[in-house]
Amino acid sequence: MTEQKIPKATAKRLPIYYRYLNILKDADKTRVSSTELSDAVKVDSATIRRDFSYFGALGKRGYGYDVESLLKFFKKILNQDKLTNAALIGVGNLGNALLNFNFHQNSNVRISAAFDVRPDLANTVQSGVPIYPMAELRKQLEDQQIKIVILTVPSSVAQDVTDEAIAGGVRGILNFTSLRLSVPKDVRVQNVDLTNELQTLIYFLDHYNDED
Fold this sequence. Notes:
The protein has 8 helices and 10 strands. It has a 7-stranded mixed beta sheet with strand order 6-7-5-4-8-9-10, sandwiched between helices. Helices cover about 45% and strands about 20% of the residues. Homodimer. It holds the Pfam family Put_DNA-bind_N.
């Protein structure tokens, strides 16, 4: 497998390709063209071919791509062949929804621990996931060797919680708070701003829906 760095935009599209390839496999489809893939995932075929080109010759001209081979390749690229444990920090309304979901469509990822400041939640099990008091955050992350956390705490405490999580060995943060976190260079933050995404959607509906 190549060790070259790929553009962030390409990296974000890889799970989309992988998900659709699984659908094709379930439908007993053995091969797919970049045009077919483009129609399904709404990414133009030239972009798909360019994305795939970063990883060498994955397809054949006139034949397309072998579904089984692509699946095996992307499974390795995306680490789908190993289980990744994540911790949820903040079991409020959004946190509860994420616990209930717990990536059931994606069996290689699971929330294996959660943390909250409320005493009535500490040392309980919600949706099959143990809830720990926030005071145990660093210790549990270290003991369970969890490297990824999902952050759904109030913005006012987000940086302090982030600092404690990083001290516990965390290297990846899915940030649902509105705060832009300050982290070391070796820690990756993926921001999910639901309000911003909704406002962007409304803007495009208001300004582009009536165009040709």
